[in-house]
């Protein structure tokens, strides 16, 4: 009897840990904490989408991405890594000067970020927040995207205390793992619709794909705007999470979630 109880307890512990790991490794899941994966209905009605670029700024690529966005009169959101911001503050200031949003993507983009405790999470996020505020002369990010999209169970509480909101994505192109721009574009554009949040990266493949993606958006009469433009007048953003996140998990691409 005792052996049966012990096995049951062990099985329960293992099961709970497996479930927790699955939630941590599900970037679009909303069960751990609030997680924005689509824009609100007001943006859908205006035919708006959000292009987001992770992992910058890049000393060569970022300016070229900005030029492409300018050519198409498009605005975007850049989720920047704090230590890169500290190394290239002028680039970050230029992103903001051209009318785009600069948001928080952690300070070091560490794979172990999702397995950190609340103090370590807060220290990293605050350090990145300060780097961005310094580079932009006081413009503080309102949004955060976890490295690789992997979220610690503690992250929601930390972000709430810091006044930040987590943003995931509707669809992504996997431009860090694919070498084929056609494949990346196909993943981003399949069933593309107003209200989508698209994930690209501040890298060479993202730059190659961007002009064609912007042309496609124009053809579909979709307008790319920054998160700051969409949520500028909205106070209670957590309420928006409840109304815009339609599924607990899953990605609107054919591939499984992979690190970004």
Automatic annotation (TrEMBL):
GO terms for molecular function: hydrolase activity, acting on carbon-nitrogen (but not peptide) bonds. It comes from the Bacteria. SUPFAM superfamilies: Glycoside hydrolase/deacetylase. One of its GO terms (biological process) is carbohydrate metabolic process. Gene3D superfamilies: Glycoside hydrolase/deacetylase (3.20.20.370). It holds the Pfam family Polysacc_deac_1. Keywords: Membrane, Transmembrane, Transmembrane helix. InterPro entries: Glyco_hydro/deAcase_b/a-brl, NODB_dom, Polysacc_deacetylase_ArnD. Residues 47-260 form the NodB homology domain. The chain crosses the membrane at residues 6-26. This is NodB homology domain-containing protein. It comes from Acidithiobacillus ferrooxidans (Thiobacillus ferrooxidans). The lineage of its organism: Bacteria, Pseudomonadati, Pseudomonadota, Acidithiobacillia, Acidithiobacillales.
